[in-house]
Amino acid sequence: MDRPLKHKRNDRPPTKRTVISPSVDGWRPINQTKMAILITFLSILVKGKIHYCEPRPDTTLELLKKFHSISIGRRWFFQCMLDLETAGYVRRQRRWLNLPGPQIESNSSLWWFTIKGAKFMASKMIRGARELLHIMTDWLHRDDSRRPTIKDLAENEAITNKEAAIKKIKEILKGIG
Hints:
The structure is a single chain. By secondary structure, the protein is mainly alpha-helical. Helix content is 47%, strand content 11%. It has a two-stranded antiparallel sheet. Residues 16-24 have low confidence and may be disordered.
């Protein structure tokens, strides 16, 4: 007598597997490691009173281990950064060094928070999020043509000019208190 096969998950036949790929939106949820990376970048930004940072991956991994007790490999770090960038919390500008001859070497990327990322950090009541928003406002007041531009700060939002971006940041600041 043949016994029927038992279904392991949600009454699915044993031949079908559960999908474990990222969601339809294309990004994975924020976990402890990604949150620690965001906090590390925020700390670098606020300490330097600048709107962008350029930490090397190895330096970031050392800071994660020292201050957050998180030890991860380079591959997972790059995946986390890709997920944070895909989610729209941070942006980057890749940089290259031209060496003598036909050689090119990778330099550390410039990273900055978007308005969405700054708003996310402020919603989590992370120390320094308010200062980050003030730094972003100051940057927009300077009319500097270097990165990040208004499009870089507000990629997925309907902000096209400096005044609208400053107004959006001030609304977020009012919400923080």
